[in-house]
Specification:
alpha/beta; 9-stranded mixed sheet; Spore Coat Polysaccharide Biosynthesis Protein SpsA, Chain A; 276 residues; 42% helix; globular; 11 strands
Length: 276
């Protein structure tokens, strides 16, 4: 069997759908970061084990989850509250953990991003592989924003998908979240620039995850980042094939990139004692 871990903060709009999709597990844990809506109440009514804990940031909260929470089973499936695993993925996960001959300590899964009622197949950089099923003792994290999952041991990939409803709480919530993220990204980007290292080697990695990570770090050094991000997603990645939803999605990503650039400038000006 597999335990389920869901991290939440004001996810009343999403949590019931997610909990219904993981009802196959007899050990569902909701780690709530101080929600002020009905998230915890909904989870308790559904039968989940609710733990209220605030660690300060995502890295600390996720580290607390895998180090301090006792799970009933050795394997943990860790969806976000706005994610729904397909029945095919659930069946595949159960087969994988039941196979004692397999050496993997974690599995990556693809997802389908939904926006404006359709799957954003092209502009969302599909397929992107993310860690969702793992043995907690083999997992650790790096970075405070857009965490990097570090697995101590072999990784595998599962062919099933989960569906990501990342806009279901509305654009106001999306902008609020990415406003927070852009602050941390600006700080991370400046640290990368000041390190003096360029991730050329990662671009040649046989692993798509490592290549994408290096490309992201390399993009920090490029001018006109918001415009380049839009052109890359909308033209090179064929985002125009996603219709009007794809156009809006690419514009949102370009706006997020612009927020990061502006905040990097703000940090530099503050460091120089200049007015904002």
């Amino acid at each position: 069997m597999i335990s389920v871990l869901i991290l939440t903060l004001n996810e009343e709009a999403n949590i019931q759908r997610c909990l219904d999709a993981v009802a196959w597990s007899d050990d569902v844990v909701v780690l709530d970061d101080g929600s002020t809506d009905a998230t915890a109440e909904v989870a308790r009514r559904t039968g989940a084990r609710v733990i209220r804990h605030s660690a300060g940031d995502e890295l600390a909260q996720r580290t607390y989850a895998i180090r301090e929470i006792p799970f009933k089973h050795a394997w943990v499936y860790n969806p976000d509250a706005d994610e729904v695993p397909s029945p095919e993925l659930v069946e595949e996960m159960q087969r994988a953990v039941a196979d004692s001959s397999r050496q993997e300590m974690a599995y990556r899964v693809r997802f389908k991003t939904m926006f404006m009622g359709r799957w954003i197949r092209h502009a969302s950089l599909y397929p992107t592989w993310v860690v969702r099923l793992f043995r907690p003792e083999a997992l650790s994290f790096e970075r405070t924003t857009n965490l990097r999952y570090v697995v101590a041991g072999p990784e595998g990939r599962l062919s099933g998908h989960f569906v990501h409803y990342s806009f279901d709480k509305g654009l106001e919530s999306w902008f609020a979240k990415h406003n927070r993220y852009s602050t941390h990204e600006a700080e991370e980007n400046l640290r990368a620039l000041r390190s003096g290292t360029t991730p050329w080697r990662g671009l040649l990695s046989p692993e798509a995850v490592e290549r994408r990570r290096s490309l992201k770090e390399l993009s920090v050094r490029m001018p006109f980042r918001p415009t380049l991000r839009f052109l890359y997603m909308y033209v090179l990645r064929l985002g125009f094939l996603d219709g009007s939803a794809g156009l809006t999605y690419c514009r949102l990503l370009s706006t997020y990139e612009r927020m990061i650039v502006w905040k990097m400038r703000e940090i530099r000006r503050r460091e120089q004692g200049l007015p904002i």
